[in-house]
Amino acid sequence: MEAVYDPVTRFLHWLNAILATIAIALAYGISGAPRHSAAREWLLTLHGSVGIAILAVVLFWAGWRLRHRAPPLWPVLTRLEVVLAHATQAALFLLFIAMPISGYLILAASGRPVRLFGLVAIPPMVPQSGRLAQAAMALHLTGEFLIYGFLALHVAAALMHAFIRRDGVFERMLPRRG
Where do the DSSP E strands lie in 2-117? Predict the structure, then answer.
């Protein structure tokens, strides 16, 4: 058995990485946009839409992983590294599910429209509630910093395997060369 991820998993990983980078850049743009401006509203719409796309990708990916297991971990990893790798991956999956849901709850509970790329309205599935909107905002902001931390850990580990250890672990997720 080849010790690399299947092509669909690799595609979903890199698609999610691109979408997460876009969502983070949009969040940064939101923080610098004037309150109540059209630019800020458009950035919020794009940020939320990319978040919904991430949710769709991660839910599909999770379903894919149920039927297509990860390749065996390399024997060069220590027991601690295996535990950290699994914990980081689980945390990122959970956060990439929780963040779009909390973002949706912020808007829906605030009585604000949720529009996918400004085209399709997503109906509110919760009653309008300032308390729920505030709780969702607190979760979203906490999740933001957790994602930064886990992504930094994930990228640092990948780079360590690619450039310091050169043990083949990084290559497991790279596109295959023909």
Answer: 114-116
